[in-house]
Amino acid sequence: MSTLSRSRASLSPAASERSTLPMGESAGPGSPAFKPLEPTREQLLNHFFERFKFYTSLCLGTSAILAVFAFLFLIPFVVEPAIQTILAEFVPEAGICSVSEHVHAETLTNCTWASCREGCTTAHTKCHKIRVNLARKPFVEGAPVPTEWDETDLRFLINPEGCGYPPRVNCSVFASDYAGPRAPKIFPCYYSLTRPDLVVARYSWESTVRGLILALVLPTTVFVFSLSVLAYWHCRCCNKACNRRVHAESFTSKEE
């Protein structure tokens, strides 16, 4: 009721100050015989719909712009790494790895590559470089160290991108878990079928595909929905086309 009351007050004076006197008689606004007409229910609904349409259009336009920026932001951080991970074709079952070399390097020239980087867009002056030996056989907990290795001195990365952001990625903890004094002699790892020199510690096909689908579908859906509603409300061509179709359907065909 409060909304309708505000709508009545905001309508034009022409709709609310018309007199109910018979034709030929007149009375001023201050006269006791002057009775202003109340706006009709249809006028109130039209006024409420116009206000609703304005604020909804403002929200939809903002959502469409944010969806575009979100999609552009997700391309280098989610979409591109996920596509590279899928193209690498990592084995679904972990193999056996053992550390062959661990170097804690400093300066940019010595950190041309790193097993782990906290941040994917900045250069690092300190890095951990871990190399491993690989046996392409299923990892079994408690199994002995293989006597023969299929590959040696391969670069070992924390994930297919080799980087991430805290708290999910902590390079000091990663180096301690795999190359520290208490690290296991053998551990599970995932190797690529298309890039033989790539071995990673963390890999999940389900999470990679899920992240790629969400990064593509959510911003696109929000953008298309917002743009469609805005075009239907404000585009004259769309309104004419819809009105023409409704007008045509209101008439029966000659056959009927």
UniProtKB/TrEMBL annotation:
Start and end residues of each stretch annotated as Disordered: 1-35
TM stretches of this protein: 54-79, 212-233
Molecular-function GO term, any one: sodium channel regulator activity
Compositionally biased tracts (Low complexity): 1-19
Name of the molecule in the record: Protein tipE
One cellular component term from this protein's GO annotations in UniProt: plasma membrane
Gene Ontology terms: biological process: regulation of sodium ion transport
Species in which this protein is naturally found: Papilio xuthus (Asian swallowtail butterfly)
UniProt keyword list: Membrane, Transmembrane, Transmembrane helix
Any Pfam family matching the protein: TipE
